[in-house]
Design goal:
heterodimer; A: about 120 residues; mainly beta; seven-stranded mixed sheet; globular; B: about 120 residues; four-stranded antiparallel sheet
Chain lengths: ~120, ~120
């Protein structure tokens, strides 16, 4: 069964460093998403991406975040200058369609620890 | 704005007994509701979704949920718990926006199943 994969599973970085989290969505999916979950808090939507551009983003997704689909398979989330409060589990998701009833398929997450 | 509240952070049941995970929603229009499950070190998996076609929704692994508009609830149930059901469960509502893509998560309920 096709699945969304994410690498690395755990990333440790120093405050102020740049990190890139990688995701491989399901191959025939066209819509891609990033969510994050700070320990003990809700899973929060960050951004959605379609046709090589951001279609929606939350207020969390500020200028230090960026997303890219560098090739036909990868979808990345870059954090330019990490802060302590960026420590969280980051989930990538993809879907075949958009809209309120679409099923989003999630990856296992990348745990980011900022020291 | 849409939101979901999961009423229990932790539920413990014995194997073979019924499971009830409670979720209330808030929405100014007919919502799209989902239940996702997360097993340790796995991605979020869709259990079931409500799309207004039927108020009783059947999902995978014997789970079902009933949409009750009068009570603004979407509780998840299973007649008989299995050890493999132990996981984190998330009640989710789809945000309505121009892109219609963001999912809004509850805080999650940890289900423990004892033998």
């Amino acid at each position: 069964e096709p699945e969304v994969t994410q690498t690395p599973s755990h990333q440790v970085t120093q405050m102020g460093q740049e990190v890139i989290l990688r995701c491989v969505p399901i191959s025939n999916h066209l819509y891609f998403y990033w969510y994050r979950q700070i320990l003990g808090q809700k899973v929060e939507f960050l951004v959605s991406f379609y046709n090589n551009e951001i279609s929606e983003k939350s207020e969390i997704f500020d200028d230090q975040f960026s997303v890219e689909r560098p090739d036909g398979s990868n979808f990345t989330l870059k954090i330019r200058s990490t802060k302590l409060e960026d420590s969280a589990m980051y989930f990538c998701a993809s879907s075949e369609t958009s809209g309120t009833y679409n099923e989003q398929f999630f990856g296992p997450g990348t745990r980011l620890t900022v020291l | 704005a849409q939101s979901v509240t999961q009423l229990d952070s932790h539920v413990s049941v014995s194997e073979g007994t019924p499971v009830l995970l409670r979720c209330n929603y808030s929405s100014s229009y007919s919502p799209s509701l989902f239940w996702y499950v997360q097993h340790p070190n796995k991605g979020l998996q869709l259990l079931l979704k409500y799309t207004s076609a039927a108020t009783l929704v059947k999902g995978i692994n014997g789970f079902e949920a009933e949409f009750k508009k009068s009570e603004t609830s979407f509780h998840l149930t299973k007649p008989s718990a299995h050890m493999s059901d132990a996981a984190e469960y998330f009640c989710v509502v789809s945000a309505r926006s121009q892109a219609g893509t963001a999912l809004i998560f509850g805080k999650g309920t940890t289900l423990s199943v004892s033998s």
